[in-house]
Amino acid sequence: MGQPLNLGIVGLGAISAQYLRTIDRLPQVRLVAVADLDLDRAREAVAAYPGVDVLSVAELLADPRIGAVLNLTIPAAHAEIALQAIAAGKDVYCEKPLAATGEDARRVLEAAQAAGVRVGCAPDTVLGTGTQTARQAIDDGLIGRPIAATATMVTPGHERWHPNPDFYYVPGGGPLLDMGPYYVSSLVTLLGPVAKVIGAASRTRAKRTIGSGPRQGEEIPVTVDTHVTGVLVHESGALSTLVMSFDAVATKAPNIEVHGERGSLVVPDPNHFDGEVLLTRLGDDGPRPLPVSAGYADAGRGVGLIDLAEGREPRAGGTLAFHVLDVMESLLASAHEDRAVNVESTCERPKPVALGGFAPRD
């Protein structure tokens, strides 16, 4: 194995703790430095990781030791930080979405191509054993030709638990842009890219009340759709029905189901890396669990960095993330314009992940 990839992290918010735990388990990656607008928060985040420098954002982006930047800023800042890192000649791995708008995401990919650097992007949950075992079942023909899928995410809103939920209710947020990347990335991994969408959306109230933390009881404005539904027409001809809601209370629907001519799969929560895959074949009395057959075992957020570190085009990559963002923006355009919308972008179905775990760090 060659030298590990030297990594810098920009943005040390709540999600960073999960990334730090994974990075600490990856021998392919060495965390060199972190940066945040709040330096005290950055210091606190890496207090348990000795030897990691705490720098300003400008210092980190200019640091010649760093080969890749992990961008964990808020969605509105994703493109700006990514473009600065690319301009410094560094690979970028970004928390989802790739950018707040498709236009900004395109600028990121074009800049990366011109600079000869690579772009990865969450969610990398699709690389875990849950989605990958389901993909293996589809590729092995266990359900026959795929014809349809459903994807359902229902929650009454993140303001009930998040102390600073403002960004969920401004452009770049909402249930589709927040949680949709997990579901749409999984659907593209399972069924391939999307050619056309038909959507509808609603917004039940203009304000939300924060339910926890020092701002509890404060009202925040809602400027995005909070219930989005639609149909994704995959290039393969399969039809996926999507429901993303910050309005509804609960559901018993599986997170994802995939239906084929000879069987149906229940796919685990795409916000998680693992979970049980259930198969019901034509003539079966009921579903049966499939043995884990593919994907990174015991994975966590940041496992997508392995591809960057090992010199491969990331499977949780910028082209996939751009297509997923394009699908979501097209779905919202369809809802607002009351018409079917063709998805202009496409991507290759990401390469599968063989079953395996992590090598222990020395």
From TrEMBL:
Residues 6-120 form the Gfo/Idh/MocA-like oxidoreductase N-terminal domain. Signal peptide: none annotated. Coiled coil: none annotated. It holds the Pfam family GFO_IDH_MocA_C3. It comes from the Bacteria. Transmembrane segments: none annotated. Residues 132-266 form the GFO/IDH/MocA-like oxidoreductase domain. One of its GO terms (molecular function) is nucleotide binding. Keywords: Oxidoreductase. This is Oxidoreductase.
